[in-house]
Please model this.
Amino acid sequence: MTRSKTGKPVDSPLIPKGPLKALILYDDDYKQYYDRRSGKRLLEVTNQGITEYVIQNGRWKLYRQVN
Model:
């Protein structure tokens, strides 16, 4: 059993019932992502897995497959 940020216990993982796509940002200064500042990273979570992207020279580039 794990705990969520709210402190409530979570007994099983969440399983989406349909297509899933979520972006997880490492930083809460969102403007840096829109300005495409080099070095910023994010995670894309889909039903197929988790992919990490990084900004290089003003463009999003695939960094690595997390799983």
